[in-house]
Amino acid sequence: MKAKFYAALLLGILSAGHLSTHAQVLTQEDSLAVGLLSKNQTTVLSGYGEAKYGIDTKRQSAEAALRRVVLFVGHKFNKNISLFTELEIENALVAGAASDEASAGKGGVAMEQAFVKFNLNPATYLIAGLFIPRIGYINENHLPTTFNGVDRPYLEEQIIPSTWREVGLGLYGHFRGIQGLNYSLSLTNGLRSANFSSADGIVGGRQLGQAAQGLNLGLSAALLYYINDFRIQVSGYMGGSTAEEKRVADSLLLNSGPFGNPVSLGEANVVYSKNGLSARGVATIVNIKNAEAINRAYANNSPETMYGAYGELGYDLLYSRYHNEKALILFGRYEYINMNAKIPRNGIENKANEKHYLVAGLTYKPGRGIAIKADYTHLSTGDFNPALMVTPFPKQIFYYKNNAFVNLGLAYNF
Amino acid sequence: MTNRRDFIKKGCIACLGLSSMGVLLDACTAPLQVLKFNSIVGQTLTVPADKFNGQSKMIVLRSEHLDNDILLVKNNDAYQALLLVCTHEGFALTPTETKIFCDAHGSQFDLEGKVIREPALKPLTRYKTALINNNITIYLNQQI
Protein backbone atom coordinates (compact mmCIF):
# COMPACT_ATOMS: atom_id res chain seq x y z
CA MET A 1 0.00 0.00 0.00
CA LYS A 2 2.78 2.34 0.99
CA ALA A 3 4.74 1.43 -2.13
CA LYS A 4 1.69 2.11 -4.28
CA PHE A 5 1.19 5.44 -2.61
CA TYR A 6 4.79 6.47 -3.20
CA ALA A 7 4.61 5.38 -6.82
CA ALA A 8 1.38 7.29 -7.41
CA LEU A 9 2.63 10.38 -5.67
CA LEU A 10 5.96 10.30 -7.49
CA LEU A 11 4.24 9.85 -10.83
CA GLY A 12 1.94 12.75 -10.11
CA ILE A 13 4.75 15.03 -9.15
CA LEU A 14 6.93 13.97 -12.06
CA SER A 15 4.12 14.64 -14.47
CA ALA A 16 3.90 18.12 -13.02
CA GLY A 17 7.54 18.51 -13.94
CA HIS A 18 8.75 19.46 -10.50
CA LEU A 19 11.08 16.71 -9.42
CA SER A 20 13.18 13.81 -10.43
CA THR A 21 14.34 10.98 -8.25
CA HIS A 22 17.97 11.84 -8.97
CA ALA A 23 19.97 14.61 -7.39
CA GLN A 24 19.44 17.82 -9.30
CA VAL A 25 20.47 21.44 -9.20
CA LEU A 26 17.59 23.77 -8.55
CA THR A 27 17.33 27.47 -8.24
CA GLN A 28 16.13 29.03 -5.03
CA GLU A 29 12.73 29.21 -6.62
CA ASP A 30 12.46 25.52 -6.07
CA SER A 31 14.44 25.44 -2.85
CA LEU A 32 15.21 22.56 -0.58
CA ALA A 33 11.57 22.51 0.32
CA VAL A 34 10.54 21.09 -2.99
CA GLY A 35 10.30 17.45 -2.00
CA LEU A 36 7.43 15.77 -0.33
CA LEU A 37 9.26 12.47 -0.43
CA SER A 38 12.29 11.92 1.72
CA LYS A 39 14.18 10.09 -1.00
CA ASN A 40 14.63 13.25 -3.05
CA GLN A 41 18.08 14.78 -3.06
CA THR A 42 18.21 18.43 -3.99
CA THR A 43 20.95 21.01 -4.25
CA VAL A 44 20.39 24.72 -3.76
CA LEU A 45 22.50 27.63 -4.98
CA SER A 46 22.10 31.00 -3.37
CA GLY A 47 24.29 33.90 -2.38
CA TYR A 48 24.77 37.53 -1.53
CA GLY A 49 27.28 40.31 -1.93
CA GLU A 50 27.93 43.97 -1.33
CA ALA A 51 30.08 46.82 -2.62
CA LYS A 52 30.97 50.07 -0.86
CA TYR A 53 32.21 53.51 -1.72
CA GLY A 54 32.98 55.51 1.39
CA ILE A 55 34.40 59.00 1.81
CA ASP A 56 36.29 60.05 4.93
CA THR A 57 35.48 63.74 5.08
CA LYS A 58 38.27 64.72 7.50
CA ARG A 59 41.09 62.84 5.84
CA GLN A 60 39.79 63.70 2.38
CA SER A 61 40.10 60.10 1.35
CA ALA A 62 37.85 57.45 -0.10
CA GLU A 63 37.56 53.70 -0.19
CA ALA A 64 36.01 51.71 -3.02
CA ALA A 65 35.66 48.01 -2.41
CA LEU A 66 33.76 44.94 -3.41
CA ARG A 67 33.34 44.07 0.23
CA ARG A 68 32.18 40.53 -0.12
CA VAL A 69 30.70 37.99 -2.45
CA VAL A 70 29.28 34.88 -0.80
CA LEU A 71 28.16 31.73 -2.55
CA PHE A 72 25.78 29.45 -0.70
CA VAL A 73 25.55 25.81 -1.67
CA GLY A 74 23.17 23.55 0.18
CA HIS A 75 22.34 19.94 -0.34
CA LYS A 76 19.56 17.87 1.09
CA PHE A 77 20.63 14.26 1.42
CA ASN A 78 17.35 13.02 2.77
CA LYS A 79 14.44 14.12 4.91
CA ASN A 80 16.59 14.54 7.99
CA ILE A 81 20.09 15.42 6.83
CA SER A 82 21.18 18.53 4.92
CA LEU A 83 24.46 20.32 4.21
CA PHE A 84 24.88 24.11 4.30
CA THR A 85 28.00 25.88 3.07
CA GLU A 86 28.90 29.54 2.50
CA LEU A 87 32.11 30.44 0.70
CA GLU A 88 33.14 34.07 1.00
CA ILE A 89 35.56 36.24 -0.95
CA GLU A 90 36.26 39.55 0.75
CA ASN A 91 37.62 42.55 -1.13
CA ALA A 92 37.57 40.93 -4.52
CA LEU A 93 41.12 39.69 -5.01
CA VAL A 94 43.35 37.12 -3.42
CA ALA A 95 46.51 36.78 -5.50
CA GLY A 96 50.09 35.75 -5.16
CA ALA A 97 53.18 37.33 -6.70
CA ALA A 98 52.87 35.24 -9.87
CA SER A 99 49.37 36.45 -10.57
CA ASP A 100 48.65 38.58 -13.61
CA GLU A 101 46.17 40.58 -11.57
CA ALA A 102 48.44 42.16 -9.00
CA SER A 103 51.54 41.49 -6.99
CA ALA A 104 49.35 40.77 -3.99
CA GLY A 105 45.66 40.78 -3.36
CA LYS A 106 44.15 42.56 -0.41
CA GLY A 107 41.23 40.21 -0.17
CA GLY A 108 40.53 37.01 1.66
CA VAL A 109 38.84 33.72 1.03
CA ALA A 110 37.01 32.05 3.89
CA MET A 111 34.40 29.49 4.64
CA GLU A 112 31.75 31.46 6.43
CA GLN A 113 29.76 28.38 7.30
CA ALA A 114 29.96 24.69 6.52
CA PHE A 115 27.78 22.45 8.61
CA VAL A 116 25.54 19.44 8.45
CA LYS A 117 22.05 19.68 9.88
CA PHE A 118 20.34 16.69 11.42
CA ASN A 119 16.61 16.97 12.06
CA LEU A 120 15.93 15.15 15.33
CA ASN A 121 12.19 15.74 15.23
CA PRO A 122 9.91 18.42 13.75
CA ALA A 123 10.75 20.76 16.64
CA THR A 124 14.46 20.13 17.07
CA TYR A 125 17.62 19.92 15.00
CA LEU A 126 21.31 19.49 15.59
CA ILE A 127 24.06 21.06 13.50
CA ALA A 128 27.71 20.11 13.41
CA GLY A 129 30.63 21.80 11.68
CA LEU A 130 31.57 25.44 11.18
CA PHE A 131 28.58 27.59 12.07
CA ILE A 132 27.53 30.95 13.54
CA PRO A 133 25.99 30.59 17.00
CA ARG A 134 23.01 32.75 17.88
CA ILE A 135 24.74 35.69 19.56
CA GLY A 136 23.49 39.20 18.88
CA TYR A 137 21.21 40.15 16.00
CA ILE A 138 23.47 40.62 12.99
CA ASN A 139 25.29 37.32 13.33
CA GLU A 140 22.28 35.43 12.02
CA ASN A 141 20.81 38.34 10.06
CA HIS A 142 23.90 39.53 8.22
CA LEU A 143 22.65 39.48 4.65
CA PRO A 144 23.27 43.03 3.42
CA THR A 145 19.86 43.53 1.83
CA THR A 146 18.25 43.04 5.23
CA PHE A 147 19.89 45.75 7.34
CA ASN A 148 20.05 49.50 6.96
CA GLY A 149 23.36 51.30 6.53
CA VAL A 150 26.25 50.50 4.24
CA ASP A 151 28.24 49.02 7.13
CA ARG A 152 26.89 46.54 9.62
CA PRO A 153 26.02 48.14 12.96
CA TYR A 154 29.35 49.02 14.53
CA LEU A 155 28.54 47.51 17.91
CA GLU A 156 27.95 44.18 16.20
CA GLU A 157 31.34 44.37 14.54
CA GLN A 158 33.43 45.73 17.40
CA ILE A 159 32.01 44.29 20.65
CA ILE A 160 30.01 41.33 19.34
CA PRO A 161 32.07 39.96 16.45
CA SER A 162 29.97 39.67 13.32
CA THR A 163 29.74 36.38 11.43
CA TRP A 164 31.43 34.87 14.46
CA ARG A 165 31.73 31.26 13.43
CA GLU A 166 33.55 28.46 15.15
CA VAL A 167 33.65 24.68 14.87
CA GLY A 168 31.31 22.75 17.10
CA LEU A 169 27.80 21.54 17.74
CA GLY A 170 24.55 23.46 17.95
CA LEU A 171 21.15 22.37 19.18
CA TYR A 172 18.16 24.38 17.96
CA GLY A 173 14.49 24.00 18.62
CA HIS A 174 11.29 25.52 19.81
CA PHE A 175 9.32 24.96 22.98
CA ARG A 176 6.14 23.11 22.18
CA GLY A 177 4.28 24.64 25.12
CA ILE A 178 4.73 28.28 24.09
CA GLN A 179 4.11 29.27 20.51
CA GLY A 180 6.96 31.32 19.07
CA LEU A 181 9.57 30.56 21.75
CA ASN A 182 12.81 29.14 20.34
CA TYR A 183 16.04 28.10 22.00
CA SER A 184 19.55 27.32 20.93
CA LEU A 185 22.60 25.88 22.64
CA SER A 186 26.03 25.63 21.12
CA LEU A 187 29.36 24.18 22.09
CA THR A 188 32.32 25.27 20.00
CA ASN A 189 36.04 25.82 20.25
CA GLY A 190 36.92 28.87 22.30
CA LEU A 191 38.61 32.20 21.56
CA ARG A 192 42.33 32.94 21.28
CA SER A 193 43.29 35.65 23.75
CA ALA A 194 46.69 36.19 22.10
CA ASN A 195 44.80 38.13 19.43
CA PHE A 196 42.67 40.31 21.72
CA SER A 197 43.34 44.03 21.58
CA SER A 198 42.40 47.30 23.20
CA ALA A 199 40.65 48.70 20.14
CA ASP A 200 39.06 45.54 18.77
CA GLY A 201 38.37 43.59 21.94
CA ILE A 202 37.75 39.91 21.30
CA VAL A 203 37.18 40.22 17.54
CA GLY A 204 40.73 39.16 16.65
CA GLY A 205 40.37 36.19 18.99
CA ARG A 206 37.87 34.39 16.76
CA GLN A 207 39.42 31.24 15.40
CA LEU A 208 37.03 30.82 12.47
CA GLY A 209 37.68 27.15 12.00
CA GLN A 210 41.41 27.57 11.44
CA ALA A 211 42.78 24.49 13.17
CA ALA A 212 42.23 25.93 16.62
CA GLN A 213 44.62 24.70 19.27
CA GLY A 214 44.13 24.14 22.97
CA LEU A 215 41.34 22.55 24.92
CA ASN A 216 39.35 25.72 25.42
CA LEU A 217 35.65 25.69 24.61
CA GLY A 218 32.89 28.21 24.08
CA LEU A 219 29.37 27.64 25.33
CA SER A 220 26.48 29.82 24.23
CA ALA A 221 22.75 29.77 24.78
CA ALA A 222 19.93 31.89 23.45
CA LEU A 223 16.20 32.31 23.84
CA LEU A 224 14.37 33.82 20.90
CA TYR A 225 10.72 34.74 21.18
CA TYR A 226 8.47 35.79 18.33
CA ILE A 227 5.30 37.43 19.50
CA ASN A 228 2.99 39.58 17.42
CA ASP A 229 5.26 42.05 15.65
CA PHE A 230 8.19 41.62 18.04
CA ARG A 231 11.32 39.53 17.90
CA ILE A 232 12.89 39.35 21.35
CA GLN A 233 16.20 37.63 22.05
CA VAL A 234 18.58 37.16 24.94
CA SER A 235 21.82 35.29 24.57
CA GLY A 236 24.93 34.55 26.55
CA TYR A 237 28.38 33.21 25.83
CA MET A 238 31.08 31.87 28.12
CA GLY A 239 34.30 30.42 26.86
CA GLY A 240 37.92 29.81 27.67
CA SER A 241 40.40 32.01 25.85
CA THR A 242 43.70 30.17 26.24
CA ALA A 243 44.10 28.51 22.87
CA GLU A 244 47.42 26.94 23.74
CA GLU A 245 48.48 23.52 24.86
CA LYS A 246 48.99 23.24 28.61
CA ARG A 247 52.78 23.33 28.41
CA VAL A 248 52.70 26.67 26.60
CA ALA A 249 49.92 28.06 28.79
CA ASP A 250 51.90 27.16 31.91
CA SER A 251 54.97 28.93 30.58
CA LEU A 252 52.85 32.03 29.95
CA LEU A 253 51.34 31.76 33.45
CA LEU A 254 47.88 31.43 31.90
CA ASN A 255 45.09 29.17 33.08
CA SER A 256 44.30 26.53 30.51
CA GLY A 257 41.59 23.91 30.10
CA PRO A 258 38.08 24.27 28.69
CA PHE A 259 37.21 27.53 30.44
CA GLY A 260 40.59 28.92 31.39
CA ASN A 261 40.81 32.73 31.34
CA PRO A 262 37.11 32.96 30.52
CA VAL A 263 35.38 35.51 28.33
CA SER A 264 31.72 36.07 29.09
CA LEU A 265 29.26 37.96 26.93
CA GLY A 266 25.65 38.87 27.59
CA GLU A 267 23.34 40.39 25.02
CA ALA A 268 19.70 41.28 24.52
CA ASN A 269 17.91 42.62 21.48
CA VAL A 270 14.38 43.56 20.54
CA VAL A 271 13.10 44.11 17.01
CA TYR A 272 9.71 45.51 16.08
CA SER A 273 8.31 45.73 12.58
CA LYS A 274 4.87 46.53 11.33
CA ASN A 275 3.38 48.34 8.34
CA GLY A 276 6.67 49.76 7.16
CA LEU A 277 7.86 50.89 10.57
CA SER A 278 10.84 49.08 12.06
CA ALA A 279 12.74 49.55 15.29
CA ARG A 280 15.63 47.66 16.81
CA GLY A 281 17.50 47.90 20.08
CA VAL A 282 20.58 45.89 21.04
CA ALA A 283 22.63 46.01 24.26
CA THR A 284 25.65 43.95 25.21
CA ILE A 285 28.41 43.59 27.77
CA VAL A 286 31.64 41.59 27.62
CA ASN A 287 33.91 40.65 30.48
CA ILE A 288 37.44 39.23 30.15
CA LYS A 289 37.99 37.96 33.64
CA ASN A 290 41.76 37.54 33.66
CA ALA A 291 42.64 40.40 31.33
CA GLU A 292 45.61 41.26 33.53
CA ALA A 293 47.13 37.79 33.04
CA ILE A 294 46.46 37.97 29.30
CA ASN A 295 48.22 41.35 29.09
CA ARG A 296 51.15 40.00 31.04
CA ALA A 297 51.44 37.07 28.64
CA TYR A 298 50.86 38.82 25.33
CA ALA A 299 51.23 42.57 25.99
CA ASN A 300 48.13 43.18 23.86
CA ASN A 301 46.39 45.65 26.19
CA SER A 302 43.23 43.56 26.57
CA PRO A 303 40.41 45.40 28.29
CA GLU A 304 38.55 43.81 31.19
CA THR A 305 35.07 45.08 30.37
CA MET A 306 33.41 46.38 27.21
CA TYR A 307 29.80 47.38 26.73
CA GLY A 308 27.55 49.23 24.39
CA ALA A 309 24.09 49.62 22.95
CA TYR A 310 22.35 50.91 19.87
CA GLY A 311 18.89 51.85 18.76
CA GLU A 312 17.61 52.17 15.22
CA LEU A 313 14.36 53.47 13.81
CA GLY A 314 13.32 53.13 10.19
CA TYR A 315 10.29 53.82 8.07
CA ASP A 316 9.51 52.60 4.58
CA LEU A 317 8.21 55.61 2.66
CA LEU A 318 6.83 53.34 -0.09
CA TYR A 319 5.11 50.85 2.17
CA SER A 320 1.54 51.99 1.61
CA ARG A 321 2.00 51.66 -2.14
CA TYR A 322 4.21 48.59 -2.57
CA HIS A 323 3.93 46.60 0.68
CA ASN A 324 7.58 45.47 0.73
CA GLU A 325 7.78 44.67 -2.98
CA LYS A 326 9.75 47.89 -3.28
CA ALA A 327 11.00 50.01 -0.44
CA LEU A 328 12.57 53.34 0.37
CA ILE A 329 13.55 53.19 4.01
CA LEU A 330 14.56 56.31 5.85
CA PHE A 331 16.46 55.37 8.97
CA GLY A 332 18.48 56.73 11.86
CA ARG A 333 20.68 54.90 14.36
CA TYR A 334 22.61 55.88 17.43
CA GLU A 335 25.33 53.65 18.83
CA TYR A 336 27.36 53.92 22.02
CA ILE A 337 30.42 51.69 22.29
CA ASN A 338 32.93 51.59 25.12
CA MET A 339 35.73 49.17 24.36
CA ASN A 340 37.71 50.22 27.43
CA ALA A 341 34.99 50.43 30.07
CA LYS A 342 37.29 48.73 32.55
CA ILE A 343 41.03 48.26 32.14
CA PRO A 344 43.18 45.88 34.19
CA ARG A 345 46.00 47.31 36.32
CA ASN A 346 48.60 46.58 33.68
CA GLY A 347 46.49 47.97 30.83
CA ILE A 348 46.61 51.39 29.22
CA GLU A 349 43.29 53.12 28.78
CA ASN A 350 42.53 54.82 25.50
CA LYS A 351 39.55 57.17 25.54
CA ALA A 352 39.51 56.97 21.74
CA ASN A 353 37.89 53.58 22.26
CA GLU A 354 34.79 55.20 23.71
CA LYS A 355 32.70 55.97 20.65
CA HIS A 356 29.42 57.55 19.68
CA TYR A 357 28.07 56.84 16.20
CA LEU A 358 25.18 58.68 14.66
CA VAL A 359 24.05 57.19 11.37
CA ALA A 360 21.28 58.44 9.10
CA GLY A 361 20.48 57.34 5.62
CA LEU A 362 18.31 55.71 3.02
CA THR A 363 17.91 52.15 1.81
CA TYR A 364 16.25 51.89 -1.59
CA LYS A 365 15.01 48.52 -2.75
CA PRO A 366 13.82 48.63 -6.36
CA GLY A 367 12.77 45.01 -6.03
CA ARG A 368 13.32 42.06 -3.77
CA GLY A 369 16.95 41.01 -3.49
CA ILE A 370 18.56 44.34 -4.35
CA ALA A 371 19.39 47.24 -2.03
CA ILE A 372 20.99 50.57 -2.87
CA LYS A 373 22.19 52.32 0.24
CA ALA A 374 23.43 55.73 1.24
CA ASP A 375 24.27 56.98 4.70
CA TYR A 376 25.99 59.73 6.59
CA THR A 377 27.90 58.54 9.66
CA HIS A 378 29.20 60.83 12.34
CA LEU A 379 31.74 59.42 14.79
CA SER A 380 32.89 61.12 17.94
CA THR A 381 35.31 59.64 20.44
CA GLY A 382 37.36 60.55 23.48
CA ASP A 383 40.97 61.68 23.31
CA PHE A 384 43.60 59.39 21.87
CA ASN A 385 46.02 58.46 24.64
CA PRO A 386 49.44 59.86 23.54
CA ALA A 387 51.16 57.15 25.61
CA LEU A 388 50.01 54.68 22.94
CA MET A 389 51.59 56.59 20.05
CA VAL A 390 54.44 54.45 18.82
CA THR A 391 55.06 56.38 15.60
CA PRO A 392 56.81 59.71 16.18
CA PHE A 393 55.80 63.04 14.65
CA PRO A 394 55.56 63.87 11.75
CA LYS A 395 54.67 60.33 10.58
CA GLN A 396 52.00 59.96 13.25
CA ILE A 397 48.64 60.38 11.57
CA PHE A 398 46.57 63.07 13.21
CA TYR A 399 43.72 61.64 15.25
CA TYR A 400 40.31 63.23 14.69
CA LYS A 401 38.02 63.01 17.66
CA ASN A 402 35.14 63.97 15.43
CA ASN A 403 34.84 62.62 11.94
CA ALA A 404 32.15 62.10 9.35
CA PHE A 405 31.80 59.57 6.58
CA VAL A 406 29.60 59.50 3.51
CA ASN A 407 28.92 55.97 2.36
CA LEU A 408 27.28 54.50 -0.70
CA GLY A 409 26.57 50.82 -1.06
CA LEU A 410 25.05 48.22 -3.32
CA ALA A 411 23.89 44.85 -2.05
CA TYR A 412 22.22 41.80 -3.52
CA ASN A 413 20.82 38.54 -2.28
CA PHE A 414 19.30 35.70 -4.25
CA MET B 1 26.11 48.09 52.70
CA THR B 2 23.41 49.22 50.30
CA ASN B 3 22.86 52.91 50.22
CA ARG B 4 19.55 54.61 49.48
CA ARG B 5 20.38 55.41 45.88
CA ASP B 6 21.46 51.83 45.14
CA PHE B 7 18.36 50.49 46.81
CA ILE B 8 16.05 52.71 44.73
CA LYS B 9 17.97 51.88 41.55
CA LYS B 10 17.91 48.13 42.14
CA GLY B 11 14.29 48.28 43.25
CA CYS B 12 13.28 50.07 40.05
CA ILE B 13 15.19 47.59 37.89
CA ALA B 14 13.58 44.66 39.72
CA CYS B 15 10.09 46.18 39.31
CA LEU B 16 10.69 46.80 35.63
CA GLY B 17 11.97 43.28 35.16
CA LEU B 18 9.07 41.68 37.00
CA SER B 19 6.46 43.79 35.22
CA SER B 20 8.07 43.01 31.85
CA MET B 21 8.01 39.31 32.67
CA GLY B 22 4.39 39.60 33.69
CA VAL B 23 3.48 41.33 30.43
CA LEU B 24 5.40 38.72 28.46
CA LEU B 25 3.82 35.80 30.28
CA ASP B 26 0.37 37.34 29.85
CA ALA B 27 1.12 37.69 26.18
CA CYS B 28 2.26 34.09 25.81
CA THR B 29 0.00 32.36 23.40
CA ALA B 30 -1.27 28.84 23.70
CA PRO B 31 0.66 26.17 21.82
CA LEU B 32 -0.38 25.46 18.28
CA GLN B 33 -2.66 22.53 17.67
CA VAL B 34 -0.79 19.73 15.87
CA LEU B 35 -2.64 17.09 13.87
CA LYS B 36 -0.66 13.97 13.02
CA PHE B 37 -1.44 11.80 10.02
CA ASN B 38 -0.29 8.20 9.98
CA SER B 39 -1.02 7.86 6.30
CA ILE B 40 -1.80 10.05 3.32
CA VAL B 41 -4.59 8.82 1.10
CA GLY B 42 -4.89 9.95 -2.50
CA GLN B 43 -2.27 12.70 -2.10
CA THR B 44 -4.61 14.63 0.14
CA LEU B 45 -4.93 15.48 3.79
CA THR B 46 -8.37 15.88 5.28
CA VAL B 47 -9.06 17.95 8.38
CA PRO B 48 -12.49 18.24 10.01
CA ALA B 49 -13.45 21.91 9.94
CA ASP B 50 -14.57 21.74 13.54
CA LYS B 51 -10.92 21.30 14.57
CA PHE B 52 -10.80 25.07 14.38
CA ASN B 53 -12.30 26.09 17.67
CA GLY B 54 -13.30 29.63 18.51
CA GLN B 55 -9.80 30.88 19.40
CA SER B 56 -7.44 29.06 17.10
CA LYS B 57 -7.12 30.04 13.48
CA MET B 58 -4.23 27.73 12.58
CA ILE B 59 -3.33 24.06 12.83
CA VAL B 60 -0.03 22.35 12.11
CA LEU B 61 -0.36 19.20 9.97
CA ARG B 62 2.39 16.64 10.42
CA SER B 63 3.12 13.25 8.92
CA GLU B 64 6.13 11.02 8.60
CA HIS B 65 5.34 10.93 4.89
CA LEU B 66 5.97 14.65 4.61
CA ASP B 67 9.41 16.17 4.83
CA ASN B 68 8.00 19.23 6.56
CA ASP B 69 4.97 20.45 8.46
CA ILE B 70 2.10 22.20 6.73
CA LEU B 71 0.30 25.11 8.36
CA LEU B 72 -3.43 25.25 7.80
CA VAL B 73 -4.71 28.78 8.36
CA LYS B 74 -8.35 29.79 8.60
CA ASN B 75 -9.28 33.24 7.38
CA ASN B 76 -13.04 33.69 7.69
CA ASP B 77 -14.34 30.92 5.44
CA ALA B 78 -11.13 30.54 3.43
CA TYR B 79 -8.30 28.16 4.24
CA GLN B 80 -4.62 28.43 3.32
CA ALA B 81 -2.28 25.43 3.42
CA LEU B 82 1.34 26.62 3.64
CA LEU B 83 4.48 24.50 3.60
CA LEU B 84 6.45 25.56 6.68
CA VAL B 85 9.82 25.75 4.94
CA CYS B 86 11.70 28.96 4.27
CA THR B 87 12.12 29.60 0.55
CA HIS B 88 15.56 31.07 1.23
CA GLU B 89 17.63 28.14 2.48
CA GLY B 90 15.05 25.57 3.44
CA PHE B 91 14.91 25.91 7.24
CA ALA B 92 11.73 25.04 9.10
CA LEU B 93 9.63 28.06 10.08
CA THR B 94 8.09 29.28 13.32
CA PRO B 95 4.44 30.31 12.94
CA THR B 96 2.83 32.81 15.31
CA GLU B 97 -0.61 34.41 15.43
CA THR B 98 0.33 37.17 13.00
CA LYS B 99 3.45 36.15 11.07
CA ILE B 100 5.63 33.21 10.14
CA PHE B 101 9.31 33.61 11.04
CA CYS B 102 12.53 31.97 9.94
CA ASP B 103 15.08 32.05 12.73
CA ALA B 104 17.98 31.13 10.43
CA HIS B 105 18.30 34.42 8.54
CA GLY B 106 15.31 36.49 9.62
CA SER B 107 12.85 36.03 6.75
CA GLN B 108 9.23 36.77 7.59
CA PHE B 109 6.02 35.76 5.84
CA ASP B 110 2.43 36.73 6.39
CA LEU B 111 -0.34 34.20 6.97
CA GLU B 112 -0.95 33.99 3.23
CA GLY B 113 2.68 32.97 2.70
CA LYS B 114 3.78 36.27 1.14
CA VAL B 115 7.28 37.57 1.93
CA ILE B 116 7.21 40.53 4.26
CA ARG B 117 10.91 40.49 5.05
CA GLU B 118 13.91 39.25 3.11
CA PRO B 119 16.23 37.42 2.56
CA ALA B 120 13.52 35.07 1.27
CA LEU B 121 12.41 36.28 -2.14
CA LYS B 122 9.66 33.84 -2.98
CA PRO B 123 6.39 33.20 -1.17
CA LEU B 124 5.81 29.99 0.72
CA THR B 125 4.59 26.95 -1.16
CA ARG B 126 0.80 26.87 -0.98
CA TYR B 127 -1.44 23.91 -1.64
CA LYS B 128 -4.95 23.98 -3.00
CA THR B 129 -7.66 23.48 -0.36
CA ALA B 130 -11.39 22.81 -0.56
CA LEU B 131 -14.15 22.64 2.03
CA ILE B 132 -16.24 19.56 1.31
CA ASN B 133 -18.93 18.28 3.69
CA ASN B 134 -17.43 20.24 6.56
CA ASN B 135 -14.01 18.69 5.92
CA ILE B 136 -11.05 20.68 4.66
CA THR B 137 -9.15 18.82 1.97
CA ILE B 138 -5.55 19.77 1.17
CA TYR B 139 -4.32 18.66 -2.24
CA LEU B 140 -0.61 17.95 -1.88
CA ASN B 141 -0.11 17.55 -5.61
CA GLN B 142 -1.64 20.90 -6.48
CA GLN B 143 0.49 23.90 -5.61
CA ILE B 144 -1.01 27.33 -6.17
Structure description:
- The complex is a heterodimer of chains A (414) and B (144).
- Chain A has 414 residues and is mostly beta strands.
- Chain A contains five helices and 17 strands.
- The longest helix of chain A has 14 residues, at 2-15.
- Chain A starts with a helix and ends with a strand.
- Chain B is an alpha+beta fold and 144 residues long.
- Chain B contains one helix and eleven strands, in the order αβββββββββββ.
- A seven-stranded mixed beta sheet of chain B has the order 1-3-4-5-10-11-2, with no helix packed on it. In chain B, strands 6-7-8-9 form a four-stranded antiparallel beta sheet, with no helix packed on it.
- The termini of chain B are far apart.
- Classes of the chains: A mainly beta (414), B alpha+beta (144).
- At the A-B interface, helix 1, strand 2, strand 3 and strand 9 of A face strand 6 and strand 9 of B.
Assign a percent range to the helix content of chain B.
Answer: 10-25%
Radius of gyration of chain B: 20 Å
Give me the side-by-side strand order of the main sheet of chain A: 2-3-4-5-6-7-8-9-10-11-12-13-14-15-16-17
Catalogue the unreliable spans of chain A: 1-38
Number of strands of chain B: 11
**From the helix content, strand content and strand pairing of chain B, which structural class follows?**
alpha+beta
Q: For the largest sheet of chain B, list the strands in their spatial order.
A: 1-3-4-5-10-11-2
Instruction: Specify the helix fraction band of chain A.
Output: under 10%
Largest interface: A-B, 58 and 47 residues
Q: What sort of overall outline of chain A do the alpha carbons produce when their principal axes are compared?
A: globular
Beta content of chain A: over 45%
Biggest pleated sheet of chain B = 7 strands, mixed
The H-and-E topology of chain A, N to C, reads as HEEEEEEHEEEEHEEHEHEEEE
Q: Quaternary state, please?
A: heterodimer
Shape of chain B: globular
Distance between the termini of chain A: 41 Å
Distance between the termini of chain B: 68 Å
Radius of gyration of chain A: 23 Å
